[in-house]
């Protein structure tokens, strides 16, 4: 057994000694085979870099148009080849070749980026902008009203190119290209809206005001537009009036009565009447002021459009431009359009300042709707410009401040000018009707009603008191009330001064009566009376007292007529006793004095004017009652007394005839 086992062990040892070298040799051969395979693989890989230029050159030369993904794949291969040669064989001529190819490919991608942006970037149609502006309230989500600036496939390609250029091309030039192209598009979109607005306004003849909530017929959505209140035409008409007042004065030959319609006409008709009269008189070019209205409304449109389009541009930009470059690129993108808007606003302010120097205070009326809209849009402006440079953010507040300062100056100078309007005889209405200064001042104040908060803010901007710093709508309302009271006070002082131009105290009284009555009625018809009452509770009562005082002053003009026939001025005659010559002469003189005085007053006062029919009837009725009663008593007492052989020579009028004559006062057509 031992011998067998020993033999077996010996054989195993021999077998092991013979197999182990074979195993090791086989293992070495396998390793050699693997190394050869790896070497061949590496050689293939290295050789592939030498083939990259040849394999990709054709695609690179043809450009990425229509096969962007394939092109980008080629660019990745070229980039890897460049990296290989730089690391392993920097002196290889192949490095220069692939480098050159890479640069050409990058330039082609930049060119493709520019080409796609240029070809597919188009101004937003005005109708879409108007829908975007009007869509705030109707849309549940902002996405529903978002604009498609670029087709989806094009946008995808642009995003891929920009991503590759940032990651692999280490190139930011495309961002400059991007903001330049989009900036031009933004500016053209806003200018297109302005042109569209002008064309539509001129073709329809009725300015489409951004301030009026109406429905556009030329848009598919037909949504009402939410914008500030601006009465188209009314401001223009007011400007016509104020310009005429400021620059020309009244035409004394015509007088002002033809400019003031009778009481009871609607305010707009009165404005139209005044505007037409002044336009005809001074030859204002037809359509010029309509154009001016359109410009104001178009500017308000453009401000809203800028905000909406800028928001939309930022959403697009976030998809294309890397995050850390977005704010700077956006700032550059909006600069041109924002600068144009601000420049146009500055031009309006500059024109207003020049107009104020010329005492043309109508210019301030153009600022009101614009300033109101700018202040309404400021929160959205601030949100859109968030993250932009401080200079960009401060442009709108600067324009608002400039407008407030200019507006406040115009308001104050207007008030002073009302006070200092010269008392010229040629400037006074011959018939004592409402002076144009009064109608202009009231019309100007009525324009402030639509812009109470804006006007109050203008005045508050000039205040330095602690109450102004804690600005509130109530404080602004009080300031505006104080201002209106100041204008009315200055107007009253000026009217008193003007009334002294008339030599006849009665005509002076009629003039003041007409003006005070016009002021009171105008205050009552509008909300001005409530605004005045904020600081002057008794204003209405004061005007009624002033009107009554002037009526009494006017009535005193009839005393020289009625004094002839008053009982107290006559001697007592005994009935049945024959009159003495002296007494008969006295009665004759009384009748003659009354007749002459009545005829003279009726002739003079018939040409005077009281536009308010109610007041005219009231004054005539009161005067008729006084004169008829006095004359009736006198006629009853002396009509049958034999003081003359020709009674018809002295008793010219019966009581009713006297009444009829007085009824025809203040009426040139009677």
UniProtKB/TrEMBL annotation:
Keyword set includes Transcription regulation: no
Keywords: Exocytosis, Protein transport, Transport
Residue intervals of the Exocyst complex subunit Exo70 C-terminal domain: 299-663
Stretches the record annotates as Disordered: 197-226
Single biological process term from Gene Ontology: protein transport
Pfam family, one: Exo70_N
One GO term describing the cellular component: exocyst
InterPro entries per the UniProt record, alphabetical: Cullin_repeat-like_dom_sf, Exo70, Exo70_C
Gene3D superfamilies per record: Exocyst complex component Exo70 (1.20.1280.170)
Single GO MF descriptor: phosphatidylinositol-4,5-bisphosphate binding
Keyword Protein transport in annotation: yes
Function description: Component of the exocyst complex involved in the docking of exocytic vesicles with fusion sites on the plasma membrane.
UniProt similarity note: Belongs to the EXO70 family.
Protein name, entry field: Exocyst complex component 7
Top-level taxonomy: Eukaryota, Metazoa, Chordata, Craniata, Vertebrata
């Amino acid at each position: 057994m031992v011998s067998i086992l020993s033999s077996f062990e010996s054989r195993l040892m021999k077998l092991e000694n013979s197999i182990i070298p074979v195993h090791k040799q086989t293992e070495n051969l396998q390793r050699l085979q693997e190394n050869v395979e790896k070497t061949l693989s590496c050689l293939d890989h290295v050789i592939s870099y030498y083939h990259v230029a040849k394999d990709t050159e054709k695609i690179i030369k043809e450009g990425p148009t229509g096969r962007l993904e394939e092109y980008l794949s080629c660019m990745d291969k070229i980039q890897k080849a460049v990296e290989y040669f730089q690391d392993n064989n920097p002196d290889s001529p192949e490095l220069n070749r692939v480098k050159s190819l890479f640069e050409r490919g990058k330039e082609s991608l930049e060119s493709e980026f520019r080409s796609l942006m240029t070809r597919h970037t188009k101004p937003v149609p005005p109708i879409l902008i108007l829908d975007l502006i009007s869509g705030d309230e109707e849309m549940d989500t902002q996405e529903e009203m978002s604009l498609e600036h670029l087709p989806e496939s094009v946008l995808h390609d642009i995003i891929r190119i920009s991503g590759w250029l940032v990651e692999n091309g280490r190139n930011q030039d495309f961002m400059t290209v991007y903001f330049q192209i989009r900036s031009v598009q933004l500016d053209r979109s806003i200018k297109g809206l302005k042109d569209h607005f002008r064309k539509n306004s001129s073709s329809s003849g009725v300015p489409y005001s951004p301030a009026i909530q109406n429905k556009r017929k030329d848009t598919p959505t037909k949504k009402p537009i939410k914008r500030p209140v601006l009465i188209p035409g009314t401001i223009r008409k007011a400007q016509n009036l104020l310009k005429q007042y400021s620059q020309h004065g009244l035409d004394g030959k015509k007088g002002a009565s033809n400019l003031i319609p009778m009481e009871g006409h609607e305010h707009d008709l009165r404005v139209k009447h005044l505007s037409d009269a002044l336009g005809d008189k001074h030859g204002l070019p037809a359509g010029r002021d309509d154009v001016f209205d359109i410009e104001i409304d178009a500017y308000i449109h453009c401000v809203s459009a800028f905000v909406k389009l800028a928001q939309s541009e930022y959403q697009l930009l976030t998809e294309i431009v890397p995050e850390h470059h977005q704010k700077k690129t956006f700032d550059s993108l909006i600069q041109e359009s924002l600068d144009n808007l601000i420049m146009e606003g500055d031009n309006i302010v500059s024109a207003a300042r020049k107009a104020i120097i010329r005492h043309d205070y109508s210019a301030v009326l153009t600022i009101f709707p614009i300033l109101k809209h700018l202040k309404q849009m400021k929160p959205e402006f601030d949100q859109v410009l968030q993250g932009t440079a401080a200079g960009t953010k401060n442009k709108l507040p600067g324009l608002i401040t400039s407008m407030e300062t200019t507006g406040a100056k115009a308001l104050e100078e207007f008030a002073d000018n009302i006070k200092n309007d010269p008392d010229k005889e040629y400037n006074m209405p011959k018939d004592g009707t409402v002076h144009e200064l009064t109608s202009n001042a009231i019309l100007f104040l009525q324009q402030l009603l639509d812009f109470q908060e804006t006007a109050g803010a203008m005045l508050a901007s000039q205040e330095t008191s602690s109450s102004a710093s804690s600005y509130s709508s109530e404080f602004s309302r009080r300031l505006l009330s104080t201002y209106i009271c100041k204008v009315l006070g200055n107007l009253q002082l000026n009217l008193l001064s003007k009334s002294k131009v008339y030599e006849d105290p009665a005509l002076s009284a009629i003039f003041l009566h007409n003006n005070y009555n016009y002021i009171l009625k105008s205050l009552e018809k509008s909300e001005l009376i409530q605004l005045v009452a904020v600081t002057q509770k008794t204003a209405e009562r004061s005007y009624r007292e002033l009107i009554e005082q002037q009526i009494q002053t006017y009535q005193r003009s009839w005393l020289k007529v009625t004094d002839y026939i008053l009982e107290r001025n006559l001697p007592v005659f005994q009935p049945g006793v024959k009159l003495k010559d002296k007494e008969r002469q006295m009665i004759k003189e009384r009748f003659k004095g009354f007749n002459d005085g009545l005829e003279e007053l009726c002739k003079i006062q018939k040409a005077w004017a009281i536009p308010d029919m109610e007041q005219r009837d009231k004054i005539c009725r009161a005067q008729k009652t006084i004169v008829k009663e006095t004359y009736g008593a006198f006629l009853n007492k002396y009509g049958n007394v034999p003081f003359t052989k020709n009674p018809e020579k002295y008793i010219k009028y019966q009581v009713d005839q006297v009444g009829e004559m007085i009824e025809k006062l203040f009426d040139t057509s009677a």
